[in-house]
Each structure stands twice: as C-alpha cells, then as structure tokens.
Amino acid sequence: MTEATVETSPTSSGVIAKPELPSNGKADVLILMRNLWKTYDMGAEKVHALHGVSFEVTRGDYLAITGPSGSGKSTLMNLIGCLDTPSQGEYWLNGKNVSEMDDDELARIRNQEVGFVFQTFNLLARATALHNVELPLIYGGIPGAKRHEMAKQALAEVDLADRMMHRPNELSGGQRQRVAIARALVNHPSILLADEPTGALDTSTSYDIMNLFEKLHEAGNTIILVTHEHDIAARAHRIISIRDGLIEKDERIR
Amino acid sequence: MKLIRSDILENLWLALATLRDNKLRSFLTVIGVIIGVVTVMLIASIISGIDTSFTKEVESFGTRSMYISKYNPGIHVGRLSREERMRKPLTYDDAIFLSKLPTIEVAVPFLEITNNFFGQKILVSGGGKTSAQVGLQGTLPDFERAGTQTVAEGRFFSQFENDQNQSVCVVGSKVADDFFPFGSPVDATIKIGSEEFRVVGVLQKREQFLFSGGSDDQNNVIYMPYNVARKLKPNSEDVELMAVAKPGMMAEAMDQVTDALRVRRQVPFGSPDNFGIETTESLISTFHSITGGIAIAMVVISSVGLMVGGIGVMNIMLVSVTERTREIGVRKAIGARRQDILWQFLIEAMTLTGFGGFLGLAIGWLLTLVVKLIMPSYVPLWAPLAGFIASVGIGMIFGLWPAWKAARLDPIESLRYE
User: Domain-by-domain residue ranges, chain B?
Assistant: First the structure.
C-alpha cells in the first residue's frame, strides 16, 4: 500500500479536492481519517479524548467500533457523524473535507451523508411514523409529494408499510427502531451510523434489528455500528477497538 | 428564501399540534394577549360611537353656520386667562352689522338667560310642572331662516312681536313633551321666572349628542324674542352670535366676519382676535383630536396587557425549549440548521400569540355588539388588524430569545439530555 498524498483544500467546503485514493485501486474510500485529535479544555487541564486516530472505510463496508466507556468511542462517533469537528487532523467524508466546516455546512452534511440510528430511537412522539421518516427530507428541502413517496418507500424497506400512520407510542420497541432506521435511510446517505442500536431492545428483537442491518448491508449500504456488546459487534465485517483515545485493534473478521 | 419556504407550513402545523396538545397551558399563557386585543377592539368601537354621535349632532347645526363668542375657539381647560375673561361682550349691534355683510345670509344674536343675576337657574313652569333645567335664549325671528331649527307645530315668533316686547316663545321638543305630554302646547301658557309667556310654536326634535341632558339638552330649550329676554335680565352680557354664510361662500364669509369684528372690537393690527369663531368643521376636528388622544392613551394602556402576555409567552417558550432539548438534538442530528430551529420556535410562539389574538378578536367582537346596543358604533377596520398584527408581533419579539436559545443548543449535549 502506497502512501496516499492528501491535497489539503484551503477552503472549508473542499468538495472537489478529493484525496488521492490508495493505489490498490479496487476500493472506493468513503471515510478517510488522518491523525484525528479531539481535546476538551477542562479549565486547568486538557483532556485528550482522541489522540491521533487514522483509518479508512471503503464504500459498502460493515464496521463495528467497540470499546469500554471512556475510551473515546462516543467522541469518535460524534466526529464520524459530523456532530463535532476534530481539534486537529483531517476527516474526509465522501470526498468532502468535513474537519473545517462550520455549523450550517455540517448540518447539511448530516442531512445528506449521514443516517443516524440512536439507542433510544429518538422519534418525535407527537408525529406519525411517516412524518418522522419525512423529517430529514423536510430539512433537505424536498417538496411534499416526493417526500411522501420517499418516506413510504423507506418504511416499506423496513417492513412497516402498514404502520405508517401510527405514532411511536402505538408501536413496539422493535418497530420504533425500524422507523428510526427508515428515517436514517430515507435520504440515501453515504453511511448509516448506529449508536448502540440494540441497547434498549430485548434479545430476540435485537436479533431482528441486526438481521435488518445485514439485509441493508447486502443492499449496498455502508454501516458503522458503535457498541460495547461483543456479540453485536461480531455481526459486523470489521471491528475497530478503541482504548484510551487510540485504535487498539483493527481487524477484519469476514 | 428557500429555507423559509420549505418548512414554514410544516412549522405552522407542528405549532398548531403543540397548541392542541397543551390547550389549557396555551390558553393561560395568552390571557394577557387576549385582554390586550379585546381592549383595543372595545376602545375602537366606543370611540367610533362617540365620534359618530357627535358628528351627527354638530352637523345638525348646519355646515354653513358660524358660532361666534368672545372666548377663543376650541376646548378650554382650567380657568380662562384674565385677558379672555375681561374681553368686552359681543352685542346685538354686532349681529345686525354682520347680517348686512354681502356674504352672510342670516346673523342673529343669542342672549343666554338660563341663569339669573345671582347665578341661579330661572324656574320654568307650565302644565302644572316646574323645572329649572330649561335653557332660555333670547334671539331674533331670523333664526328660523338659519335652517338649523325647524318649527314642527305653530310658528316662530315675529319681528313685530320682538319689537313690541310681546311675551311669546317657541319651545323645544323636550319642553313640549315634559310640560304638555297630552296636548298641543301651542297657545298654552308657560311661566318663566315671574313672567307669563304664550307658546306660539314647537320645534322639531333634533339629533342629540350622547349623554346630553338637563340644560345641555338641545331639545330642552325655550326661545323668546331678544328684547323680552333683555328685559328679563337687563345686565346680561352673555351674548353669542350665529352667522350663516350664503351657499358656497363659507371661506369668504369667515374672512368678512373676522375682519368686521376686528374693526368693531378695535383689535390692533397684528394682535390676535379677541373673539372666537367655531364652525361645524372646527368643532368636529377639535372633538376628533380629543377622542384621538383618548384612543392613543387607551392603546398604550392595552399594550401593557400585550406586554404582560408577551412575558408569559417568553416564559412558556423557555420551558418548551428545555422540555424539548432532546427533540432539538435529534432535529439537528438529522440536518436541521440553526435557522431551521430558530424558525420552528419563532413560528410556534407566533402561532401561540396569534391564537390569543384570534380569541381576543372573537371576544372583542361579541362585546362590540353589546356596545352597539348602547350607542350607534362600528368597529373600524384598523382595530382588528392592529390587534392581530400586534399579537403575532408580540409572539415574534418575545419568542426570539427562547428560539435563539434553542437554535444555539449543541447537538451532542442535547442528544444526551434526559
């Protein structure tokens, strides 16, 4: 593997200046992280949540990020999900230099490139399943009729076509998580980022959800799973273990 | 702007849903706004009622009429200045002089003798009743030609009766009704002070300004020949003049009357008039300036209600932002920008107060129907418009800080919020 030369774009929205890909040529690099640092200023002392993390994720990969609490796992997830920017280092997502973007540009990236799935589903309680799924499309500025169409299709993909008009409190935990997954998928994002997606579900429902992820992966989606449960992580194709703000292990298991 | 257009309707629906889910809380929050809007509606309708009623009365005096007194025109507040009190009275001769001006059709003097020399009201009795509330005026028969009063029954007294000091009189409709409810007062006898008068005519009832009564009642009046009135109260200086311009010559007539009176009253060149001329127009505009002032004062007072309502809205919006921190986090995570969140909460606040404004309009409208029973009034269009715009504006102003707070929330922190 040759050294990738990175053209650092001077502008924050470096959309065009894509880094040169690794010369093995077959893989399409979706995520490129170079020497990422995240430092929190806690008054007197500086806490380094991440010190120099570098890795790549190719399109269509199924990755799990594991680690004990306090390992920097959540910080890494926030960076991958563009909820936060690194203190140092570079992060390229789908050819865009995310590390230097401002709040509104990040919101745009989150809307277009990232689909979030949360542990506690985080659906809007007052809105129907359909409306919940439409939400990212509203912020994406997609007009009403097309929005309905796309949301219905996403709900059908997670087998909830018949529950569209139900509110979250009329759905089971598994169904709620599937609505959340539909919401994450509806904009056809580059990555599906799931934070402990089975943490609030019982074992059999967890397996259903994991099967759904597998199906979505087979359909070509890039999935990143953040979890501290080993059996959940074991369903992925690649596991990155984080400890003390560094990558401890990066192994491909499938 | 694209970002506003894409979700403004969406936010409105969301806001209405929130409103529906918190009916009681929303209602209590916007009570201040409701009261403010109701007040605006009520004030507008009451003032419109007073204006209409006043205009009607004043216009019944004729649009070509001038009322001339030795006092300055307009509204007097407090004691008159010494100069004004010491001015010499207008006279019978002034009236005769004015009546000969080419632009003047009729000019007559009025000698006010309602009060006797000691300031007491002169008693009037007839048909077995006595009243001290009747206005007593001495004038000339030309008054009938001024066209502001019409004889309903009988006739006006004549110049001959005036010249011969005959004790005859013409009575207002209220005098006729009060003293002679069952028959015609014509040829009946009325006792004014110690003198007996023969009634020769009854005047048509005329438009009244709201709440006028007693000796202010324009129908509770007796007109008698000027000379007779002068005889009843020889020392009276209380003379006012009325002059009616020839058709289409109001402006010229005003100038001629002013010039003539300045010469007759020896006003030095460059000094202000030492008399006042009121016209229908000037009376109405004076009155409008008063009611306008009252309206502004009342609007200021009602805006206190709106302010209090606004603070309530700000409070409830801050609570709402805190309650929905997690929702804000989720929205940001899936792509809401700062201005998206800002607009969401701004529109929610505006919907809340707009709803209050709407309730206020409904309640206010019902109350104006009640006002309508008391006086002829209407609600001018500006009142509901201003009320509604003010209430939505209050939502925007007081919703800005909570919405800004929501927009600035950090997505990571908000997602972690329990």
Answer: 2-56+287-416, 114-235
